[in-house]
From TrEMBL:
The entry's keywords: Lyase, Pyridoxal phosphate, Transferase
Protein known as: Cysteine desulfurase
Keyword check for Lyase: yes
Keyword presence, Lyase: yes
Naturally occurring in which organism (per UniProt): Mycobacterium tuberculosis
Co-factor requirement: pyridoxal 5'-phosphate
Length: 113
């Protein structure tokens, strides 16, 4: 199980690093690996999460978009919706790279890059 945990943590760290390097992308939750779980929720300034999700889906990257059963929290922080990527033992570093590239594509497509 230690190897599984280490693999997932590497993927999450890579996703946070990659997404944090994109102007206008905000990671929700801690950006350090301390007390961090697998899901990485984020918003892209000026692009609705459903649009980000569609661009990612078109590129073969699966994320969840919406309120994630946390509508009161979204309202409290003024968020229309968020995108959320989750990582598990079967995910790869290449998939993280595709996620980051897809988010960059969404910013460009919607005129935010």
């Amino acid at each position: 199980m230690a190897a599984v945990e280490a693999h997932e943590r590497e993927l999450v760290a890579a996703a946070i690093e990659g997404l944090s390097g994109i102007d206008g992308v905000r990671i929700l939750g801690p950006t350090s690996m301390r007390d961090r779980g697998s899901p990485v929720a984020f918003v892209v300034e000026g692009v609705h999460a459903h649009d980000v999700g569609q661009v990612l889906d078109d590129g073969g990257v699966a994320v969840r978009v919406g309120h994630h059963c946390a509508l009161p929290l979204h309202r409290r922080f003024g968020l229309a919706a968020t995108a959320r990527a989750s990582f598990a033992v079967y995910n790869t570093a290449d998939e993280v790279d595709r996620l980051v590239a897809g988010v960059r594509r969404s910013r460009h497509f919607f005129g935010r890059a």
